[in-house]
Amino acid sequence: MSDRNLLRRGLYGLALLCAFGLAACDSETGETVASIPPAKNVATPAESGQAIAKAQDETRLESLDELDDQPLPRRKLDIQSWQTEGGAKVLFVEAHELPMFDLRLTFAAGSSQDGGTPGLAMLTNAMLNEGIEGKDVTAIAEGFEGLGADFGNGSYRDMAIASLRSLSAADKREPALQLFSQVVGQPNFPEDALQRIRNQVLTGFEFQKQNPGKLASLELFEQLYQNHPYAHPSEGTPESIPGIGIAQLRDFHARAYTAGNVVIALVGDLSREEAEAIAAQVSAALPQGAALPPPPVPQAPAATHEHIDFPSNQTHLLLAQLGIPRGHPDYAALYLGNQILGGGGFGTRLMEEVREKRGLTYGVYSGFSPMQTNGPFMINLQTRADMSDATLQLVQQLVGEFLEKGPTEAELERSKRQIAGSFPLSTASNADIVGQLGSIGFYDLPLTYLEDFMQQVQALSVEDVKVAMNEHLSADGFVIVTAGPEVEQKPLPPPSEKPLEQPSSVPEH
CB of 81 within 8 A of CB of 447? Predict the structure, then answer.
């Protein structure tokens, strides 16, 4: 339901590595390894190892018993914030557990800023690390690699991102930052690289023709957003990409990659003074300019059903309505309600009724995607082509019943526990934290947002969730796109009280 399905190379995807982050969390949990009582008799090394392993296993089991339903400890974040001289918003968290840092720049430079040229934002972001003065793409990659640093970039509907992970020692940090600042602030957009990337994107469009799920997704956004900037795909179109030239990329970079249009997120082994110097250096290296305006509020479309005839064994079903912008006061209630409806994996209403009781799909999922303005609420699944009509009716029926009655008290409490239990993972690594900081800054959320969100979720009642879901969703308001073959339809099998071992078909894409 997002642009994360884009073709990726280093150009589209954001490569935020988190291999070391989990180790940093151990000291935050407050857990200690229990001491092993000394053995009464001398044992062989093998016997000693077995005894220690057995005692540790028993201790871990006892610890798990003690946890009961209590959520895991959460990492406490002391978020510091300021603004650079050039107007960049900075969010910073010190984390000295590892000798490294993560830097993430989030620009309001996604495809919603493409104007009349779909793919312009994506190509600009993709070209950042293709060339700077004195270095081509290979030299840039070798420069980061030689310093033990990682560069990442990506472009989506709202935002474009550039990231750096580096060791914090000055002899590695300073040259890595110098190279990063040049790559993001002064790319030279070589013509040969642009031609290569255009060809890759055009090849990707050909592959899309073989993917009914992607075709359905493209049609869904077009039907849902009509003439709004969110309607066109972030990767552009086969018609728009060939005509985008170097001058357009330079112009977009000059107005969208400015110091006033970026949020700088920093996490790692840095002092406040060092963080301020890094933010000032990066901000000064960017073009100077103001923030770009957000996209307009979209108009709600009429309910519709479009079908794409595709020769496959399965049919893709996508249903969507306009949701909410990020920061909306109902977000916590909608998030909790959706976790019960279809966003929480196994145990949700949709998964239980569609997969477990009837074996119609391997998975059915729903979710809100709040953005700068109203992002989509979407439901998606694949099912047998000859039962696609009845499956679609079942999904709409389940949504209608959920809106009418709301969740049960048991569902609400179970989902609250699950959210509380998984919440520590959102700050488990420095890469996770820098992503959270980028989102908080980009969507102008309060610095206490993470704690506020958890408190809001835990305070919600069944009625709160029901009211919020009905405020923003309608059982008969869906824009629906299906992609699959035209075949004779069959009725659904009766529901089983016992979970079926296998769904009726396997996913094709």
Answer: yes
